[in-house]
Amino acid sequence: MKPRWRRWLAGTLLITLGATGCGIGDRVGGDQPPATSDGKGEIAGNLTVAWWGGDSRNKKTNAVIDLFEAQHAGVSTERQSADYGNYFDRLNVQASSGSLPCAVQMQGRQLNDYTKRKVLLPLDEMVAAGTIDTSEIPPAVLEAGKGTDGKLYFIPYGAAYDAIAINTTIAERAGLDPLPERYTWPEFLDYARLAKAAVDQDTYVLGDLGGTINAFNAWTLGQGLELFNAEGKIGITKEQLTEYWTMWKQLLDEGVTIPPQVAAEEPVGSDQGYVATGKLMINGIPGNALFNAQQTLTGHDAGELMTYRYPDGSAGMGNAVIPSGFGIAANCANVPTAAAFIDFFTNDAEAGKSFASDNGAATNQQVLEAQLNDPELPELKKHELELYQQIVADEPPYIVYPPGYNATFQQSFERNWDEIAFGRLTIQQAVDAFFTETNATLG
């Protein structure tokens, strides 16, 4: 998870661009939809590709691009990468000037900030024409590449999910049985309370999930609730959010969750956080962070980790998948090459082996099976991928995130929970503030 100040900066920049007369749609698209295309044509010439990631992902992405260039001798690529926060900061500026990279990495949580301003090409005709093959992508995963208008704007190549990580060594020492594969929210909270009573007093039990947006999304979806209505505003009621925050405030007051002052000092990154360093028994982490977090934990000689899907709600599973993939900019002058690159990145067996599910599990089911059958695949990485398969097999719900989700909904949610946790606002005051702030600009 990136630092909150950086999420605030990215969101503020996006709002500023949209409000100053130099918005993302002013120079590209405007009120007119971008041209559609079946993406067929000569695969040649220059292609600009942009993605987010650290050193490891950059190395793997560059390796895939090298493979693509090797198959298409007439193609040269200009490559742009940055960490998650800086990536979207730069992307917003590029979008405002009509200079988006041709093949641009997207994620569902930001997608409609761009579709709203019509700076991405719909890809439906390319899929229908067979230019981009999506036949091996589970339908529930492919749906996450659609905008609020129902059109497909990016092709997911990797699908992440959120998970509950547990230090099983601490649990075993405390005499606790493992969690079952499927469990409910009441069962999860009972487990945390049992752990609080059983573990050493100097061990923190449960992370501060009251302000963790992905935990809230899972709880909401598991109750069968809609996060957003047809207008892109908040879809839940104040009473429902009050119920959720009351649940976490009680755990905080009981000392089950980590104190807010300690949570505020947690290092950034799932591989450096308190679970990864052995200071915390249970927390939410990205499902694809287990392997790296365990490497850190092993370095501290602090136990073994295992991940579980989020608890089920009264309506069933709440785990949503969070795919990342590539779209094509409306200003792209080399659509056939961009389409060919997206198809290659998503479906080529050698590309999949080289990228190794670095940004979520490979969405192409054949590519994923090849990775799972690799005898050199570490067991924890195999668990990450198999847990993704289990979630997808249950046809997970998906969220259509409205424009402004990151900049308004997520940041207001986190900020107002902090006000509760630090005792500066009552739950009702924070709920009222969240609804007022968020609905003013969301959608």
TrEMBL record:
Keyword Transport part of the UniProt annotation: yes
PROSITE patterns (UniProt xref) = PROKAR_LIPOPROTEIN
Q: Which SUPFAM superfamilies match?
A: Periplasmic binding protein-like II (SSF53850)
Xref: InterPro entries:
Bact_solute-bd_prot1, SBP
Pfam families noted in UniProt: SBP_bac_1
Q: Does the keyword Transcription regulation apply?
A: no
Among Gene3D superfamilies, the record links this protein to: Periplasmic binding protein-like II
Q: Which UniProt keywords apply?
A: Sugar transport, Transport
Q: Which PANTHER family match?
A: ABC TRANSPORTER SUBSTRATE-BINDING PROTEIN YESO-RELATED, ARABINOSE-BINDING PROTEIN-RELATED
Name-wise, this protein is Multiple sugar transport system substrate-binding protein
Per the UniProt entry, what species is this protein from, by scientific name?
Microlunatus parietis
Lineage at the top is:
Bacteria, Bacillati, Actinomycetota, Actinomycetes, Propionibacteriales
